[in-house]
Amino acid sequence: MIPYLDLHKINHRHRADFEAAFGDFLDRGQNILGRAVSEFETQFAHYCGAKHCVGVGNGLDALRLIFEAYKIMGKLKTGDKVLICAHTYVATVLSVKQAGLIPVLIDAQAETFNFDCNALLTINDPEVKAILPTHLYGGLAPMHEIAALARSRNWLIVEDAAQAHGAKNDQGLRAGHLGDAAGFSFYPTKNLGALGDAGAVTTDDSELAQTVALLRNYGSQERYFNKLSGFNSRLDELQAAFLSVKLKALDKDNALRIGIAQQYDSGINNAEIILPTARYRGDHVYHLYVIRTAQRQELQNYLHGLGIGTLIHYPVPPHKQEGLSELGMKHYRVTEELHNSVLSIPMSPVMTPEQVDQVITGLNSFKP
């Protein structure tokens, strides 16, 4: 059996360091917002090239707290509109909605799975105040085009970097430092994954960082004194310690992912399967390797029969979700085609060459 993702094997590599970090955690007795959180925030800000990192409870909260902070700072107000690519995970949309803002969906471009930049150019709505590009599957959104458009329209740029830890643009700038602020998830399956829920905000804006830091802790900087009406979304001290361990291996793990993607690109040859656009300049860190096929269910069943695990990211687009019925009035043709055809095949830094070859052989042998 080749699992879609072997988290046990990924984390077992760090077991000794995890145990040492846990021992330090017990010895210090700082359970909330202690040294481990501060150290990880410093390390991750430096890694991303940002001035500030604020650890929070999860990726959804990271994005929501950015928007909540911008409202407090007077840069956004309730009812402002935020542009989102329709092909994304539901949390991207929820972060906007929960902050009292209005998500405006833009259809995707089939080859990149991301914003259709031509469609973005048609947006001249004065109520749009921000754009929220998702670096989907580990590949950067078209940030040059987005940045130029945002400057001309005076939009804030908030990156959803939950799937792109370590991805760089052609100038060497990493995800998390390509807009005004960025939200990260460290959900266990991510390229940089905790052993539970965790997230972070990165930014160069000191006022934004200070406001998010207040909001994550009930709006309080000093215990029992609340400057703001805040939330409870603090990065866990123990998860921060584990993330500091795994951060040291992130670039190496990303390089392994890219190597596997190159093998897939050169080895998979089946007319029923469309491969993702190949990009190896560093702007794609292959959180997922996503193929497309009109025969998705048949292919998934076939691979399962060969002992090859797969997943669908994502079977239902946000605008078709029951819990987001207010988005369901429009038709997003490319997004819906993608959601009906995408299939994620095994991708992780602990796959063996034999497993990669086995996946390639299985895909090439598929006949509907």
The averaged pLDDT comes out at 96
User: Would you list the SSEs in sequence order as H and E?
Assistant: HHHEHEHEEEHEHEEEHEEHHEHHEH
Q: Give the uncertain stretches in residue-range form.
A: none
**Computed CA radius of gyration, to the nearest angstrom:** 21 Å
Number of helices: 13
Helix-strand category? alpha/beta
- Strand proportion, as a percent range, falls in 5-15%
Biggest sheet statistics = 7 strands, mixed
Overview of the structural elements:
This protein is of the alpha/beta class and 368 residues long. Helices cover 38% and strands 14% of the residues. The chain contains 13 helices and 13 strands. The chain has helices at 7-12, 15-28, 35-48, 59-72, 90-98, 117-121, 143-153, 206-215, 237-247, 250-267, 296-305, 333-339, 353-364, and strands at 52-56, 81-85, 102-106, 108-109, 114-115, 128-132, 156-160, 181-185, 199-203, 220-222, 225-226, 289-292, 342-345.
Task: Kindly list the characteristics that best describe this protein.
single chain, alpha/beta, seven-stranded mixed β-sheet, two-stranded antiparallel sheet, 38% helix, 14% strand
Task: Give the helix/strand layout.
Blueprint: H1 7-12, H2 15-28, H3 35-48, E1 52-56, H4 59-72, E2 81-85, H5 90-98, E3 102-106, E4 108-109, E5 114-115, H6 117-121, E6 128-132, H7 143-153, E7 156-160, E8 181-185, E9 199-203, H8 206-215, E10 220-222, E11 225-226, H9 237-247, H10 250-267, E12 289-292, H11 296-305, H12 333-339, E13 342-345, H13 353-364
Parallel strand pairs: 2-3, 2-6, 6-7, 7-8
Antiparallel strand pairs: 1-9, 4-5, 8-9, 10-11, 12-13
